[in-house]
User: Fold NAD(P)-dependent oxidoreductase from Frankia nepalensis.
Amino acid sequence: MKIGFIGPGRMGRPMVDRLIAAGHEVTVLVRRPEARAAAEADGLTCVDTVPAAVRDADAVFVVVLTDEQVRSVCLGPEGALTAMKPGAVLIQHTTSDPTTAQLLVEAGAVRGIGVLDAALSGGPHDIAAGRLTLWVGGAEMLLNEARPLLESYASPILFVGPAGNGQRVKLVNNALFVAQVGLAIDAVRLAGSIGIDESAILAALPHGSGASRALGVVAHAGSVDAVAPRLAALMSKDVAVVREVAAGAGADLGLLGAVLSSDAVTKKVLTDPTSPTRDRPRPTPADDPR
Assistant:
């Protein structure tokens, strides 16, 4: 298939590599001259406008940083959905507001373009191994048609209902993950208060019934203080989106909200003391260690 790819960054680039290895013809959007030179040196076909990237594509992938960027590159007179040919499919991977997914579906329907809300969980290493998790909202028939393409880099690929549900599942997952990291950090605090060394408890707990992927992230970091520099930029963005979406829906975050507002989360997960921009969350690629 002919593929247009918007956002060949930390997450997007290994997807591009897997798609090319599967035999697809990929054109990538790269605007910065230095990034384009590097991509072309790697043998990639590069263009510098959205229409040039997507107009001939059978499928277009969007892996950018923020909800605002998704709307910018997909909507409007210079957006992907305006330039794509009828019958093509747009696959949107960026963590964003569920209403954005619904807007894309509506805009695509006007021109006969299908849209999949394909929220993801995993990191570049998972993509390289073909085991990225996808939660996909949209038309199930469209997903079935696109599944062989997505299987180039993802497994499992889970259908979760209408467009927007992919993002909703991702946001619930993000809230649970960050809360679990905060609970793991507080467990280390508790251990210290009753006389157990931090390194000892982090070595012991992953082998018990309290083990979780979040605990594994803390244990792999080696100490509580090493968690925030690894996760803060990414998780602060995700938690902000969770709160905004919950507030907009009138949903109660309940115990998750209490943990997300705790010192263990706000000070030890979401605030990076080593960052010069620690007082304002930075937008980051759509990837995570979950």
